[in-house]
Specification:
By secondary structure, this protein is α/β, with parallel strands linked by helices. The protein contains 8 helices and 7 strands, in the order αααβαβαβαβαβαββ. Helix 3 packs parallel to helix 4 (73-79) and helix 6 (121-130) packs parallel to helix 7. The protein binds calcium ion (CA).
């Protein structure tokens, strides 16, 4: 997987960043701290954080969902773009990574908007559905274990309102999805997921080649 946009040479990538990136200082600090982490490749690229922040503003999101927090960069990028009464339900299983996330959310003054649920995300999503929260979310970002993508997608789709937007990360998987010689279970899971979405008439889709590939799925009214 990639933590910068695939397929751009470094000269062009650096140009893209230098001519477009408006990264708040707190996000820059979090990105630098996370860069030294052994799982740093799990972090989204800053141009993707900025893109998602734009999407959230574009649809006027107030209530959002995140599946896969890691050290909280994407959560923070979204939180900084929500109105003051905005809310994020953030799902992860890792206390160590999300402790870092919470320090930065506090420092940025958005911790009160973020409800972190440390539990398997499928359980958290099922609980939200059981609590009657279907059709109440404006935006969802899916960026966790790839073998459960389909399960996260189906539940998140129910949780989104009509016209709500889902963004699903790593759909190009460092280019491995396109290599017929690669057949590990993560790659297979992403291929199967991409195929499913291509056929799914419940959503309007676009596969955006930013960072490691980000599919956007807008929930249609049926
Ligand atoms: Ca990712």
């Amino acid at each position: 997987m990639s933590h910068k946009t695939l397929g751009l040479d470094s000269q062009l990538y650096n140009y893209l960043l230098s001519s477009c990136l408006r990264e708040p200082e707190i996000l820059r600090q979090l990105r630098w701290q996370t860069a030294s982490h052994r799982m740093a490749r799990m972090q989204i690229a800053p141009e993707q954080g900025q893109f998602m922040a734009l999407l959230v503003q574009l649809i006027g999101a107030k209530k959002t969902l995140e599946v896969g927090v890691f050290t909280g960069y994407s959560t923070l990028a979204v939180a900084l773009s929500l109105p003051p009464d905005g809310k994020i339900i953030a799902c992860d299983v890792n206390q160590e990574y999300t402790d870092i996330a919470q320090q930065y959310w506090q420092a940025a003054g958005v911790a009160n908007m973020i409800d972190l649920r440390i539990a398997p995300a499928l359980e958290t999503l099922d609980r939200l559905l059981a609590n009657g929260e279907a059709q109440t979310f404006d935006f969802a970002f899916i960026d966790a274990d790839k073998e459960n993508y389909q399960g996260y997608y189906e539940r998140s789709l129910q949780l989104l309102r009509t016209g709500g937007l889902m963004a699903i990360d790593n759909v190009l998987w460092g280019g491995r999805v396109a290599n017929p010689e690669v057949a590990d279970r993560h790659t297979q899971a992403i291929r199967a997921f991409n195929h499913l979405l291509h056929q799914d008439e419940r959503v309007t889709i676009s596969m955006v080649p930013i960072t490691d590939g980000l599919t956007l799925a807008l929930k249609r009214g049926l």
